[in-house]
Amino acid sequence: MASYLRSWLSAPVASAPTASRPNELPDPNIILSVSPPEDDDDDFTAKGDPEDEDLDMPAAFPAPFSAQRLQTTPQSNFGVPRILTDNARMLPPPNPSLARRGGAGGLTVPSGSGSLMPPPTTLKAPTKLSSSSKRGKVALAPGHSPLDWASLKSSGTDLRGGVEQLMKIPPSVLKQHNKRDDAWSAFNGKVYNITPYLAFHPGGEKELMRVAGRDGTKLFALTHAWVNADFMLDACLVGFLVPEPRS
Ligand code: HEM
After folding, report:
1. SS3 of 191, please?
2. Does ligand 1 come within 6 angstroms of the Cβ of 203?
3. Does pLDDT of 89 surpass 80?
4. Is ligand 1 within 6 A of the CB of residue 211?
5. Where does the record place the region Disordered (predicted)?
C-alpha cells in the first residue's frame, strides 16, 4: 500500500492549466511533482532514503524522549507499568502458578476489568462456615434425616397418637393439642399429629411448635410453599378441620 502510494505520488503527471495561462494546453514534457521538497523540515516526512522508510509507520507514542518515558525507569516505577521503548524487548509473562493474592513479590489482583485473572470474589476464601443456613435449617440429630422419616412412615408404627378413626376437629378441640408430646396442627383443612415429626423437621422443633394447637397453613406457605406436607405427614393424619359448632 505504502509503496503503491509512493509510486503514484512521484509518477510523472501532466501539468494542468494554470490560472495565469488558463487557455494554454499543458506541456506533456513538463513534470509536475507533488512530492514534498527533500530539505523540508516537516516532521511528518521521513528523512533519509525513502526506500528504507515505511510511510505507514504510526508515530511512536509516547514520543521517544517524552516525560513518560523518562520517568519510567525500571528502579522507580512505583507500580506503574514501564512503557517499553521501540527497542526494548517485552518480558515473558509471569508463571500463573506463582501468582499470590496481594502478597509482596506475587501478582496482585487487579481491581479494574481487562485482566485475565479471575475476579477477587472467586479467590476469597469463606470466612465462616456456619452449621445452619440463613433460612433457619438446623442440624438434625443422627437418625432423623428425611430418609429416616420416610422409613419410619412406611414401618407401620402408629404416628397418629392412638387415633384410630379420622375425626371432624373444630378449632376449640385443636387448641387443646398444643404440647410437645401431644401436638396437632392443621394444614389446608387437614389436622395432623405433628409430635412424631418434630425431631425430623429440618427447620427445627421450635419453629414447628409455633403452629401446635392451631391452623398453620399460612405460616407453612410463607416459609416453604414448595414442601408437600400432605405427602410428608400422611401417616400422621388425625382428621379434618371444621368450623366451630354453634351452641
Ligand atoms: C408440619 C408441617 C411442616 C413440614 C412437613 C415441614 C417440612 C419442612 C421441610 C421438608 C423442610 C426442608 C425444606 C428444604 O430443604 O427446602 C423444612 C424447613 C423449614 N421449615 Fe418446615 N415444615 C413444616 C412446618 C413448618 C412451619 C409451620 C414452620 C414455621 C413456623 C416451618 C419452618 C421451617 C423453616 C424455618 C425451615 C428451614 C428453612 C428451609 O429450609 O426452608 N416449617 N420444613
Report:
1. strand
2. yes
3. no
4. yes
5. 1-59, 89-134
| SS3 state of residue 131 | coil
CA 223 to ligand 1 centroid distance, Å: 7
Per-residue b/e over 158-177, b at no fewer than 16 CB within 10 Å? ebbbebeeeeebeeebbeeb
Local structure of residue 20 (DSSP, 8 states) = S
> Taking a C-beta distance cutoff of 8 angstroms, is the pair 168, 222 a contact?
no
Of 43-57, 113-127, 204-218, least confident by mean pLDDT is: 43-57
By most ligand atoms within 8 Å of CB, the mutation choice from 224, 230, 234, 238 for ligand 1 is 224
Using a 6 Å cutoff on CB, does residue 169 contact ligand 1?
no
All three cell numbers of 75, joined, read: 528502579
Ligand 1 neighbour 233 (Cβ under 6 A) = yes
ipTM above 0.85, yes or no: yes
155 CA to centre of ligand 1 in angstroms: 23
Which single residue is written with the C-alpha cell 389446608?
188
Ligand 1 centre distance from Cα of residue 182 (Å): 19
Instruction: Assess contact for 241 and 186: CB atoms under 8 A.
Output: yes
Residue 192: exposure state from Cβ atoms within 10 A (0-12, 13-18, ≥19): buried
CB 238 within 8 A of CB 169: yes
Homologous superfamily of 146-241 in CATH?
Cytochrome b5-like heme/steroid binding domain (3.10.120.10)
At 64, list the grid cell.
521517544
Look up residue 130 and give its amino acid: S
Backbone dihedral angles phi then psi of residue 149, each to the nearest 5 degrees: -65, -40
pLDDT exceeds 60 at position 157: yes
